[in-house]
Amino acid sequence: MILRGLVSLILDGAATSSRAHATAAAHAAAAKSGHAADVFLCNHLIVSYARSGLLDAARRVFGEMPRRNLVSWSALISACAQSGEPELALELFARMGVDARPNEHVYASAARSCAALRALAAGAHMHADAAKRGFLGASSFVANSIVSMYMKCGCYEAGYDVFRTLSAPNLVSYNAVVSGLAASSQPEMGLDMFKLMKLRGLRPDRFSYAAALGICNDLKNTDTGKALHCDAVKIGLDITAFVGNVILDMYSKCGATRDAEQMFSSVEEKDAVTWNTYVAAHSRRGGHMEALALFKDMVDADVVPPDNFTFASALSACGELSLLRHGEQVHGHLIRSYDQDGVDVAVETRS
Questions:
Q1: Which residue of 42, 64, 216, 250 has the smallest Cβ count within 10 Å?
Q2: Positions of the PPR repeats (predicted)?
């Protein structure tokens, strides 16, 4: 009992030091003392290994357990879902009926995994099972995850039907519905949902603003887009590439050249999408020389490397201007930057 307490303290305190080292030390101590099969300790090990990014170690502990309980299954399924292993999470979900029945955390992890894989059939089966066991009425946590799953799988009607049953939908649900409605050719309703989210006291995040601004972009609704931009400025989201790129694209496609220029300058950590969006904006309005100058700025800055889209845009600008020498320079830089596959892709894009 004393050893169990010591090992639990080591695991719980691992976040303040080297979690992986502390977990491995605790694991070794448990094995040496003959407690390696203890369910309580093994569950702690699974969680701590997973939080250290050592999913394989967590799986080994799980696989060596002679007995498992609900916590064991829930810990590993959640770890797999959060570590980019959705197939494994669903495989474990299908197997767990032997030892334990799923709880709300397991269902939520399964829903996230179905969403990641766009596994609609598996998601619908999981939804039916959760409903049968009474988790949708008892846990908005599960229902919110199912809404997001359906929307990401492109089954918008089913997702919206579940959403309407929620007494307290959370931000994740609203974001999923706003994006889903936009993709399902109901963008105006998506904007209404964004407004309703704010009226209900939820604070939109970067995903909310990106989805709503994307709708404004599609609708060419610059007035609403500018209002959303102002809101994003107040909470500092406009300078992030994730939101700033959408605003930049909106202004560029709406022909608001000055606004687009200011937006490009204000994005603090420009990524490839930021540069590509602005290069494309210049090309779209016939500013091919400006597009080439921007390409040169991107190369000279040497912070974000040009990708296939960037090279294709630059080559296209050279073609429009009949600048053979510039085109050869761009092509040469492309060859130096990419392997043969990358060159082929870029050239195919250009042609």
A1: 64
A2: 38-72, 170-204, 271-305
Residues near 127 by beta carbon (within 8 Å), at least 6 away in sequence? 111, 146, 149, 150, 162
- Write out the DSSP string of 260-321: HHHHHHH-SS--HHHHHHHHHHHHHTT-HHHHHHHHHHHHHHTSS---HHHHHHHHHHHHHH
Alpha-carbon distance values, 237 to 15, 138, 192, 230, 240 (Å): 30, 35, 21, 10, 6
Position 306 scores a pLDDT of 85
Q: What is the largest CA-CA distance in the chain?
A: 80
pLDDT of residue 22: 74
* pLDDT at position 303 over 60: yes
The CB density around residue 297, as the number of other CB atoms within 10 Å, is 12
Angle at 254 between CA 250 and CA 260, to 5 degrees: 60
Map out the domains of the chain as residue ranges.
170-269, 292-351
**Structure letter (DSSP) for residue 16:** G
CATH topology (fold) of 170-269: 1.25.40
b/e for 245-254, b at 16 or more Cβ within 10 A?
Answer: bbbbbbbbbb
What is the rounded distance in angstroms from the CA atom of residue 232 to the CA atom of residue 210? 10
pLDDT number for residue 23: 77
Report CA 107 to chain centroid distance, whole Å. Answer: 19
Determine the Cα–Cα distance for residues 277 and 246; give it in Å rounded to an integer.
9
The average confidence (pLDDT) of the chain is: 84
> What confidence score (pLDDT) does residue 30 get?
74
| Residue count of the chain | 351
- The rounded distance, in Å, linking the Cα atoms of 222 and 224 is 6
**Letter string b/e over residues 46-60, b meaning 16 or more CB atoms within 10 A of that residue's CB:** bbbbbbbebbebbbe
CA atoms within 13 Å, Cβ hemisphere of 198: 12
How does DSSP assign 88-117, residue by residue?
A: HHHHHHHHGGGT----HHHHHHHHHHHHHH
- Tell me how far apart the alpha carbons of residues 349 and 258 are, in angstroms, rounded to a whole number: 29
